[in-house]
Amino acid sequence: MKATFPNFGYETLALKTFLEKLGASVVLPPANTKHTLEMGVKYSSELICLPFKITLGNFIEALNRGADTLFMAAGAKKCRFGYYHYLHEMILRKLFPRFRLYAISQYTPYQFVFEKMPQIFMVSPTRVIYALLILLAKCALIDDFKCQLRLARVLDFNQANQIEKRAIKLIESANSISQIRRTRQEIRTIFSINGKKPEIKIGLVGEIFFMIEPFANQEIEKELSRLGALVVTKRSLFRHLKHLLKIDWEFYRFSLLAYKYLKDSPGGEAIRTVGEAVSFAMSGIDGIVHIYPFTCMPENIALEALEKASEDYDVPVLSMSFDEHTSRTGFLTRLEAFVDLIKRRKRERGR
Ligand code: SF4
After folding, report:
1. Does residue 79 line the site of ligand 1, with CB under 6 A?
2. Domain 2-107 is in which class?
3. Which residues are within 8 A (CB) of 75 and not within 5 positions of it... i.e. 6 or more apart?
4. Average pLDDT for runs of 10 along the chain of length 351
5. Of all atoms in ligand 1, which is nearest to the CA of residue 268?
6. How far is the CA of 198 from the centre of ligand 1 (A)?
7. Would you say the CB of residue 134 lies under 6 angstroms from ligand 1?
8. Which of 80, 86, 163, 318 has an alpha carbon 20 to 30 Å from 98's alpha carbon atom?
9. CA pseudo-torsion sign 5, 48, 54, 248
10. 322 lines ligand 1 (CB under 6 A)
């Protein structure tokens, strides 16, 4: 089996290890580029959300590299993510004669461990549980690495970029619990650098694919750090997996915080987006940036809620939607203007 799945930011490394632990040989799609997006856009309907187009582009590029088995997360209750995999398969069948596509439902963990994975890989549930533990541990490591990276980027942007490359190599080769534990310590050590204190803190919230995949969000975290803002976020694959396993306790708090603004979930991560934003606002954050795909229904609803929360907590919120036509220059200009506004506001208030 030559397995593949769409790129998912740094977390791609953890998902690759998971499939390898189950015995697959993994063929990753190349890193996302303009070509990936062009491929996805070419075969997608115009108004479908950008994550669909990018992931379709990933599948096309991976199949061209020789992959024969595709894995795609599925099941999103109220949003169109639930039928991504049907559409992917329909489109890809017209382009590639032979491949298998497995849709992996996010909301049936027991079936995943005891039926689906053992059937696909012909392994025991015990082996699936072991692979899952490694996946969780590696996702936690990547979550920790990203926190270190965010701080290091504001302290010394160029040095952080150098360290990032070394850290990724270490993460790539950490494939057992003990190696993962050692790597976490090593990464913390190499990231202990000195530099100027961050001027402002910005909370980043939004749709999960955009929060995790830097190509989709035009490397917004890097750009904010370059402007002197420490980025704070509560989103990662590690937290998402904990949420699916119903052990993400913070999510219950976010749901309570969001309730005043969103009584019912419109699907996707809207509740989490609003809850996280309110939690950031309560902690005294300087500003919030909200990112989402242009046609994303749940996040467009969250946008309304965020406008109210912004007034209630007197915290500036910048909402940015993206599609394949989003101009890089326009994006950077809006970001710079927002960061300037927050810095000026902070100076004026003497905080
Ligand atoms: S959450 Fe938004 S972007 Fe993601 S699949 Fe649903 S509608 Fe599309």
Report:
1. yes
2. alpha beta
3. 81, 82, 103, 105, 106, 107, 108
4. 97 98 97 97 95 98 98 85 93 96 90 93 96 97 97 94 96 96 96 86 97 97 96 96 93 96 91 98 97 95 96 97 95 97 91 61
5. 1
6. 33
7. no
8. 80
9. negative
10. no
